[in-house]
Amino acid sequence: MAGWLALAYLSGLAAFLMDISRSFLDPVISDVISKALFWCFSIAVVLGIFDRHKSTYPLMRIGGIVGAGLVPLFWFSFIQNDIILRSVFSSATAGLILFCALPLLWKKRSGALENIMFISIAILCSTYFLRPYLVYGVLDAGHTAANYQSSAFAMLLHASSAFLGLVCGVVMLIVVGYDIIQKLQLAATVDPLTGLMNRRGLDQYIIKELSNERAPDRAVIIIDLDEFKSVNDSYGHETGDEVLKRAASILQRITGELGKVARIGGEEFVVILDEMSSADRLIVAQHLRLSVGMIDHPEMGEKNNVTASFGIAIMADKESFAMALRRADHALYEAKADGRNCVVEASNDNAIRKIRYIERF
Predict the structure, then answer these.
(1) Strand 268-273 to 259-263 pairing
(2) What are 355's strand-pairing partners?
């Protein structure tokens, strides 16, 4: 979006310079080029907005509007030289181009900044339609290329274009800055390989969501892929990355709205389940274990499954997440010691209970 915005204002600057240089160049040619550059300004703004929302560019619509606008532009330039009508139709063309962005902005708006951007673009768009007709009705059609530069129409055109363009530019620059900040914050809290929360993202989630008043009865599950080091050693780190991405995907898909998933280390994941019955928590944990173990990893040849061990703890009243995670980690250690590929639950009195009602495979 920043690139399109820069292109838009370079086009706008070039259009303004071309417009005020008509006393040095052929006035009709310079006016046609100036108006075409103003169209380029509108096109770049629209494409920047669509780029920001990762939507398909409306090239067919824009091309149709530009094609239709070229007809009156050339007609009132080279066949019937009328500078006012030329401005009326060219302004309407620029407005129609800019209008292409309004439905998308309306659909995607969320929060004050998005609403301000929609309003500023809508106002700029509306002036393209209203400004020429209001001035044309007041001034009549008596202007020529010779007196146009000093006319009230030209002064109003330049002043309003500069002011509204500046307002929209400032708003869009703020939006670009906001997007950059959001992207940096996201990069700091999301694991780039799997797309899950990383440890910092998990810490922020805990601070925000797992206060002592809301945390009790949440399940904390720590998951470790079994013998993952041997996967990297035998098949390479690229294969290991694929294994991690598939495991993360299945954990995220199954957990869904039931809780949150994070990757906190090399092959370690954490799942935080929302409040549910003890039996349901264990069913979810076993479902996760079985699903991870059933993933096919074709890069590994015949032995193409990687199992996982699970430690689970239920957050007790007034217990911190760190304490529950420590108990879950202790249960995970027991699962590893018991032969891996199983779920072990730590009770609130630190006793260990192995979950065996689903047989290993």
Answers:
(1) antiparallel
(2) 343
Report pLDDT digits (tens) over 97-106: 999 999 999 9
In the β-sheet with 259-263, what is the strand arrangement from edge to edge?
Answer: 259-263, 268-273, 219-225, 308-314, 343-346, 352-355
Cα distance between residue 327 and residue 220, in whole Å: 9
Q: Which of 209, 257, 267, 299 is catalytic?
A: 267
What is the Cβ-side half-sphere exposure of residue 87, based on CA atoms within 13 angstroms? 27
As to burial, measured by CB atoms within 10 angstroms (0-12 exposed, 13-18 middle, 19+ buried), residue 357 is exposed
CB-hemisphere CA count at 13 Å for 227?
14
Active site residue 267: yes
- How far apart CA 306 and CA 340 sit, in angstroms, is 11
Confidence at residue 138, expressed as pLDDT on a 0 to 100 scale: 57
Report strand pairing: 308-314 vs 219-225.
antiparallel
Q: Residue 349: helix, strand or coil by DSSP? A: coil
* pTM of the entire predicted model: 0.62
- The DSSP result for 159-212, as a single string, is HHHHHHHHHHHHHHHHHHHHHHHHHHHHHHHB-TTT-SB-HHHHHHHHHHH--T
Return d(Cα 144, Cα 86) in angstroms, integer. Answer: 11
pLDDT digits (tens, 9 = 90+) for 274-291: 888 878 888 999 999 999
Q: CA nearest 346: which of 292, 297, 300, 281?
A: 281
**Which pairing describes strands 343-346 and 308-314: parallel, antiparallel, or unpaired?**
parallel
Whole-angstrom distance, CA of residue 310 vs CA of residue 254: 15
d(CA 305, CA 242): 12
* Per-residue buried b or exposed e for 248-282, using 16+ beta carbons within 10 Å of the residue's own CB: bebbbebbeebbbbbbbeebbbbbbbeeeeeeebb
Q: Is 104 left (phi over 0), alpha (psi -120 to 50) or beta?
A: alpha
Residues 54, 49: Cα–Cα separation, whole Å: 9
Dist. CA 320–CA 197, nearest whole Å: 20
The rounded distance, in Å, linking the Cα atoms of 122 and 124 is 5
